[in-house]
Design a protein that fits this description.
The protein has 232 residues and is mainly α. It contains ten helices and two strands, in the order H-H-H-H-H-H-H-H-H-H-E-E. A two-stranded antiparallel ribbon has the order 1-2. Strand 1 and strand 2 form a beta hairpin. Helix 3 runs antiparallel to helix 10. The longest helix is centred in the middle third of the chain and has 28 residues. The radius of gyration is 17 Å and the shape is globular.
């Protein structure tokens, strides 16, 4: 049910309140490319993705065929499917913004929202631009993996804000990425590209000072996310 509710928002474009200026939006959008750590992530993640694309016939497709046949994660991949639909991101944001509701938790909740939103929005448009078929051939939303993008956005924020939980966050994100291959939804290079985008925005937005206000709807993964925002 949740998946279909998300899909209903696909046709709704990005809407932001006027208090969130064009310059602030551009700064946040470009943060994944101007931050030094994010640049390193793009260098290594992008290089790995490119290498996998170049060796697709020799490496990527045989690996995918083997995983799709053996399904090493079994039914546990369902956990990855649902978790990759923004579930941990939303739980964290809700906990920080409304349950704890302190100045520090407000900052953390808004940070998670921005990292998830901008990474997800980037992947949403890249899917339509690249137009690569999924391994099962069902549609052309394979590149990059949206589930993996938002999972690694989540993991990078957790790693920065809560270092003691860093490896749990990245472990969950890696599991989500592998589950998409297990379900024959994505190739390995789709997953590495999604991880790169998510981490690049997670690190790029950590020092952002501006934020959106009022309500917005953002395209994420293959659907969208509705959120209530503030300005700080």
């Amino acid at each position: 049910m949740m998946k279909y509710l998300i899909l209903l928002t696909t046709c709704i474009s990005f809407v932001a309140h006027a208090d969130y200026s064009e310059s602030e939006f551009k700064s946040d959008l470009s943060s994944a490319y101007t931050n030094k750590t994010s640049q390193d992530i793009w260098l290594y993640g992008g290089s790995t993705t490119l290498a996998l694309v170049l060796f697709r016939d020799q490496l990527v497709e045989p690996i995918q065929d083997d995983i799709a046949e053996k399904k090493p994660l079994g039914r546990a991949s369902l956990i990855g499917d649902y978790a990759g639909q923004l579930v941990p991101n939303v739980i964290y944001m809700s906990y920080q913004l409304w349950f704890l509701n302190t100045p520090e938790s407000q900052r953390r909740g808004k940070y998670m929202l921005k990292a998830s939103a901008f990474a997800g929005m980037t992947t949403f448009f890249l899917k339509r631009l690249i137009n690569e078929k999924r391994p099962h051939g069902g549609d052309r939303n394979s590149m990059p993996s949206g589930h993996t993008t938002t999972a690694f956005a989540f993991a990078s924020v957790i790693g920065i804000e809560h270092p003691e939980w860093k490896w749990y966050g990245y472990g969950l994100a890696t599991f989500i990425g592998l589950s998409r291959m297990n379900d024959n939804e994505h190739y390995l290079h789709n997953v590495t590209m999604g991880a790169t985008i998510g981490m690049a925005y997670g690190y790029g937005l950590q020092n952002s000072k501006s934020f959106m206000s009022n309500t917005m709807v953002l395209p994420l993964n293959d659907g969208g996310m509705v959120a209530y925002n503030y300005k700080f």
